[in-house]
Amino acid sequence: GQASFVDIPAGTYTFSIDFTELPIGLTCKNKTEEIIAIGGNEDIYLNFPVVAAGRMSGVVFIDKNRNGIFDENEKPADDILIYANDVPKYTAMNGKYRFTNLIPGIIKVKIDLKSLPENFEMTTKDSFEVKVLPVQEIKNIDFGIAEIEQEIEFE
After folding, report:
1. What is the three-state SS of 51-95?
2. Are 119 and 91 in contact (CB under 8 A)?
3. d(C-alpha 22, C-alpha 82), whole Å
4. pTM of the full structure
5. How many CB atoms are located within 10 Å of the residue 141 CB?
6. Most Cβ neighbours (<10 Å): which of 8, 76, 128, 144?
7. Cα atoms found within 13 Å of the Cα of residue 69, Cβ hemisphere only
8. What single DSSP character describes residue 40?
9. Which of 97, 104, 88, 96 is nearest to 136 (CA)?
10. What would the pLDDT profile of 120-152 be if each residue is shown by its tens digit?
11. How far apart are CA 101 and CA 140, in angstroms?
């Protein structure tokens, strides 16, 4: 879309994209806001490129058998903090998380180890790099955690 503004007084202005007005499935490719100084009778062109967004989802689970796979008898882990690049999201009660409106490209999905329950550790990697394409939904980026096994000493 295009917009034009006529007879704007000299000054500094902030122009930004209202995400609620973008069609579903589109997101801004890079900048979402620009601050410009207008001096007077000049034409200024701003570009806010939009792209078809990607999505990603997975689950954090308590990996009782420590095999790194979410098996039927294993329980989900809620309230675990996950990042897709710098965007945070907590897992729901069913252990699931979902990121939408991802800019296509390489996304680093990472679990915040400080959000694990006390005495728990990872049974899978704590981060993955995933290539997200426009309109693609990547599923099953799962993270396993388990209680730290305590060594028992016998005398």
Report:
1. EECEEEEEEEEECCCCCCCCCCCCCECCCCEEEECCEEEECCCCC
2. no
3. 26
4. 0.75
5. 18
6. 144
7. 3
8. S
9. 104
10. 999 999 999 999 998 899 999 999 999 998 777
11. 18
